[in-house]
Amino acid sequence: MDKTRVRWGVLATGGIASAFTAELLKMDDAEVVAVGSRTEASAKAFADRFGIARAYGSWAELAADPDVDVVYVAGPHSAHRAAAGLCLAAGKAVLCEKSFTLNAGEAEELVALARQHDRFLMEAMWMYCNPVIRRLAEVVKDGAIGEVRTVHADFGLAGPFAAEHRLRDRGLGGGALLDLGVYPVSFAQLLLGEPDRVQADALLSPEGVDLNTGMLLGWESGATALLSCSITADTPMTAAVTGTGGRVEFERGFFYPERFVLHREGREAEEFTAGDGDRHSLRYEAAEVMRCLRAGEKESPLVPLAGSLAVMRTLDAVRDRIGVRFAGERR
């Protein structure tokens, strides 16, 4: 691998693939050399749009390209296991979109494949790579708010989404939970780890996916997290963490924040910012992947595989409580 420029392949051509590719093209140490899709026409259109040299009409062709160092897997949840697994088996490093897979079993299979082939694998939980979220983790670890007692977080979109939309498609892993709820769950588990107890309730669609879901997670420490996600309501999208010695508050867009405010009794409120104010950028996760590859690391300390597996187990537990199973799912 060229130590100056990491060569990326992009698997899938949807909205998040477009956003990530646009960020890569702004980075001097990244080069997008190929794109792969299920159809050559889709890959060619994407390649023409972004000036990418090679367009493949199959995942296998992209995975076999000797000039690709790492593949960004950006398809629907239902495709993650197959697409990322194909790339790992072909010897590629992989950054796989969240939610990592449909369920914890598939996630475990991907981790096993990465270790079998001695390849880098990371879930694209860009929130964990955001400098403000990284600072939050440090502040909480350092005891600035004492022992964490409660976490509140929500992520909801108003919709409405038609029955044929991917967010309502059981075959694609649709519903609010895997697309949006993964953020509040990952936020809580970043600070508290995997919960000991999971309770949940939801409104389901006629297709059998969750439209509106509330979660209550509990830990033996006494901490609790009250989380929600929705594809029927534009929620505040805020977050707060309260401890025995203070609290931290995030404004709308907690999963890509530009600041948070720390409140402690008897002290002035303290504001923590990213510095550059580039809250929308996906470049932080791209930079972390490339740092790991240059260092020869097989997983990221910012987005560890054990953490991704733990989040998938929690999402599975929530789905068990609310009665959601995906079409063709193996569990």
| Coarse morphology | globular
Count the beta strands: 14
Averaged pLDDT, please? 95
What gyration radius follows from the Cα positions, in whole Å? 20 Å
Compute the separation of the termini in Å.
37 Å
Residue fraction in strands: 15-25%
Strand order of the largest sheet: 8-9-10-7-11-12-13-14
What is the share of helical residues? Answer: 25-40%
Q: Number of DSSP helices?
A: 10
Task: Tell me about this structure.
The protein is of the alpha/beta class and 331 residues long. It contains ten helices and 14 strands. The chain has helices at 15-24, 40-50, 59-64, 77-89, 104-116, 126-129, 131-141, 176-192, 283-295, 305-322, and strands at residues 6-11, 30-36, 54-56, 70-73, 93-97, 121-124, 148-156, 197-204, 210-218, 224-230, 239-243, 246-250, 259-263, 270-273. The strands form two sheets. It has an eight-stranded mixed sheet, covered by helices on one side. The chain has a six-stranded parallel sheet with strand order 3-2-1-4-5-6, sandwiched between helices. α4 (77-89) packs parallel to α5 (104-116) and α8 crosses α10. The longest helix has 18 residues, at 305-322. The radius of gyration is 20 Å and the shape is globular.
